[in-house]
Amino acid sequence: MRKFDTKVLKIDPSTISFDNQTNELIITDEHTKQVLQEAAELLQSSQVVGFPTETVYGLGASSLSSDAVRRIYEAKNRPADNPLISHISSVDMITDLFKTKIPEVYKPLIAKFWPGPLSIVLPVSEGCPVSPVVTAGQNTFAVRFPENKVARALIQVSNLPLAAPSANASTRPSPTLASHVYEDLQGKIPMIIDGGQCDVGLESTVVDGTVDPPMLLRPGGISLEEIRKLGGSWTNIVLGKKTAGQYEKVRTPGMKYKHYSPTAKVMLFENFNNAIDAVNFYTNTVGDNLNGKKYAVLRSKYWTKTPEDASLIIDLGKTGDDIQRNLFAALRDSDAQNVDIIFVEGVSEEDEGLAIMNRLSKAASQIFDKETI
Ligand code: TXA
Ligand code: MG
Which atom of ligand 1 is nearest to the CA of 218? Predict the structure, then answer.
């Protein structure tokens, strides 16, 4: 693999805006303009660039170039059968560029949630120029119109749809700061645009409305409850995981892999109302008295009391929004403190909780549920 001297270039998102009517890009700061121009030139020459979105940092490359997209898989060390989401900066790009008619079912979803943390799965139409490396050879492709201004500006300036997975090394927690991207991909990519902390903090919701009933392929920044509220067939949306067995293929290959894992072992606790109980329970059931080990406690709603010998205590926040924003950074910060084990307070799987618990259960080595013991 080529070795790069990875540049991290900071820009100020508040200097970027879009005309409400025409979607025209306005950048008031010369440095921001130059950085976006430099990134666009890399993208146009089939290179990859790390950039912020409202969900997590993405590793972008032109969706139209197989060479470019292969570089994403290579830099991340990502399995090639896991397809990528293409990021667009206007709804019209679906029809004009991808030559794809938007199925009626998606129109209320698009009207309500775009730009934003929602990805939709579309059929690949004849003449659609999306690279087969993006779709992993499937006859569908996923698209998202992100809200983050840096992401939208980068798509506009490069004049390319950007295939972009999360910009972490495969299996690591997703990046919510430019420094997380640097930690995982330094030397492997030419540039990272630093646009500050990601607002949502975990990935977009992925839905497939082309099947009946519609399927939630990955819970994320838009909750299941919010989607159901739209009415129509969205009222009946089902969880992909629970229904995957009905289909020949696992429909979101992302479900198959080890994901979001720090080096420390993650122990996830459901229905334990304090950390002392949780740690005692772990010690007794696993037979590990934690002697000579460092451990972190990641707490959210109920774990007020924490054991005295915890090396690190991180408050994720009390609301779903806060917990999802802080989660991935907390897993990485625990690694930075060299802890051996991370004890995490689970949350109930409603609203933001569904996506939070999805990520945590994939990160976890073991899950302890007090209700089922
Ligand atoms: O928030 C996000 O979506 C971030 C930022 C960078 O936008 N991107 C992201 O990409 O999370 P990635 O590659 O980590 O996850 C893409 C997800 C995977 O679960 C993948 O299997 C699913 O989308 N996916 C992509 N194309 C698909 C398709 N044609 N059919 C079904 N699932 C698809
Ligand atoms: Mg990812």
Answer: 19
Neighbours of 291 (CB within 10 A): 5
How many residues appear in the chain?
373
Q: From ligand 1's centre to the CA of 85, what distance in Å? A: 5
Instruction: In whole angstroms, give the CA distance from residue 70 to residue 206.
Output: 22
d(CA 34, CA 31): 5
Task: Retrieve residue 17's tokens.
Answer: 């805006």
Atom of ligand 1 nearest to the CA of 119: 3
Residue nearest (by alpha carbon) to ligand 1 atom 6: 58
Q: Cα(259) to centroid of ligand 2, in Å? A: 8
| pLDDT per residue rounded down to tens, the chain (373 residues) | 679 999 999 999 999 999 989 999 999 999 999 999 999 999 999 999 999 999 999 999 999 999 999 999 999 998 888 899 999 999 999 999 999 999 999 999 999 999 999 999 999 999 999 999 999 999 999 999 999 999 999 999 999 999 999 999 999 999 999 999 999 999 999 999 999 999 999 999 999 999 999 999 999 999 999 999 999 999 999 998 644 433 333 334 444 456 788 899 999 999 999 999 999 999 999 999 999 999 999 999 999 988 999 999 999 999 999 999 999 999 999 999 999 999 999 999 999 999 999 999 999 989 999 887 6
DSSP structural state of residue 314: E
Instruction: Please name the amino acid found at residue 84.
Output: L
CB-based contacts of 196: which residues, under 8 Å, 6+ apart?
Answer: 13, 52, 177
